[in-house]
Amino acid sequence: MTKRKVTKAIFPVAGMGTRFLPATKSIPKEIMTLVDRPLIQYAIDEARAAGIEEFIFVTSRGKGALEDYFDHAHELEANLERAGKTDLLNVLRATNMDSGAIAYVRQHKALGLGHAVWCASRLIADEPFAVLLPDDVIAAEKPCLQQMIEAYAETGGNMVAAMEVPYEKASSYGVLDVREDMGALVSVKGMVEKPKAGQAPSNLAVIGRYILSPEVLSNLDAKQQGAGGEIQLTDAIAQEIRTSNNVYGYRFRGQRFDCGSKAGFLQATVAFGLARPELRDEFDQFLGELSAMRKAAE
Ligand code: UTP
Questions:
Q1: Whether residue 1 has pLDDT greater than 70
Q2: For residue 295, what pLDDT is reported?
Q3: Does residue 72 have a pLDDT over 90?
Q4: pLDDT in tens, 217-229
Q5: Using a 6 Å CB cutoff, which residues line ligand 1?
Q6: Å from CA of 88 to ligand 1 middle
Q7: pLDDT of residue 198
Q8: How far is the centre of ligand 1, averaged over its atoms, from the C-alpha of 290 (Å)?
Q9: Model confidence over 25-64: pLDDT tens digits?
Q10: Model confidence pTM above 0.90
Q11: CA 42 from chain center: how many Å?
Q12: Are the C-beta atoms of residues 220 and 114 closer than 8 Å to each other?
């Protein structure tokens, strides 16, 4: 079994973000801000903590603001330095990416997540790689991808982040068919994207963190359409189960927020707001007053 270090990550950010229209008419979803940082920054920080050195963004038309976000803000840095605003300067500098560490590829048509990942094939070549979907934001003591990289050091193969969901919600996810449940780790005998109601093989759903072998990219070469007429990453991973039988699910420790949906984004805003020492007291008081007002009105 090959176990190579994972140093490359793909960030598919070419989706249309229709659930956030009209905002996403001009703002890429990944630039939307949770407290004071764009969603993409949470994903980058998580990837860095897991040892990722090369960051590959699969973008599309209208995502210019995302590319600009990664430019160094020399003038702003100089102004903050002159003004002695060291804290802000440090915040800004922590977002800087090294030249050469970032690459962009274009997905010309939103044909699905599998297709977006395939678009980065040439940059991945023959190495294992991570995929992070920035709209899944995960609050965790140890960042989710780091937990997975540690587990992957034992298993090799392919690994997907997994989370228990209510059975009635399973049809919104890729779902694992579990061969053996070993606790945090499960070995997988099948995967289904968005199963029909009542047909989910388990309630263990795949969420947006993956460690994949380059064979998955070869499986995507066929560009076969799956659920919803899209080229699905799930199908290419499921093919690996059939040919190599080396796919694992990993129950991560942490709380995942679906920031691709409005309700999930609002929940994340509350959770991350309350986690900030400088906001906690005022925000907590406001939420307490709000719930007291609601109770009084009932
Ligand atoms: P979503 O299913 O959330 O789609 O994609 P979306 O277009 O971003 O949002 P809605 O549903 O229209 O509101 C999950 C992830 O896959 C990427 C998205 O950018 C997001 O990170 N994706 C999806 C692509 O890069 N290309 C695609 O063709 C589809």
A1: no
A2: 85
A3: no
A4: 999 987 788 888 8
A5: 12-19, 29, 58, 107, 110-113, 115-116, 133-135, 260
A6: 32
A7: 86
A8: 34
A9: 989 999 999 999 999 999 999 999 999 999 999 999 888 8
A10: yes
A11: 9
A12: yes
Domains and CATH numbers, the chain: 8-260 (3.90.550.10)
Type of residue at 263: A
* Interval between CA 172 and ligand 1 midpoint (Å): 14
Buried b (16+ CB within 10 A) or exposed e, 22-50: eebeebbbbbbebeeebbbbbbbebbbeb
Contact partners, residue 171, CB within 8 Å, separation at least 6: 194, 195, 196, 197, 200
Confidence grade of residue 252 (pLDDT, cut at 50, 70, 90)? very high
Q: Is 156 left (phi over 0), alpha (psi -120 to 50) or beta?
A: left
176-212 pLDDT, tens per residue?
Answer: 999 999 999 999 999 998 999 888 999 999 999 999 9
Quickly list DSSP for the chain: -------EEEEE-----GGGTTGGGTS-GGG-EETTEEHHHHHHHHHHHTT--EEEEEE-TT-HHHHHHTS--HHHHHHHHHTT-HHHHHHHHTT---TTSEEEEE-SS---HHHHHHTTHHHHTTS-EEEE-TTEEEE-SS-HHHHHHHHHHHH-SEEEEEEE--GGGGGGSEEEEEEEE-SSEEEEEEEEESPPTT--S-SEEEEEEEEE-HHHHHHHTT--B-GGGSB-HHHHHHHHHHHH--EEEEE-SSEEEETTSHHHHHHHHHHHHHT-HHHHHHHHHHHHHHHHHHHHH-
Categorize the per-residue pLDDT at 82 as very low, low, confident or very high, splitting at 50, 70 and 90: very high
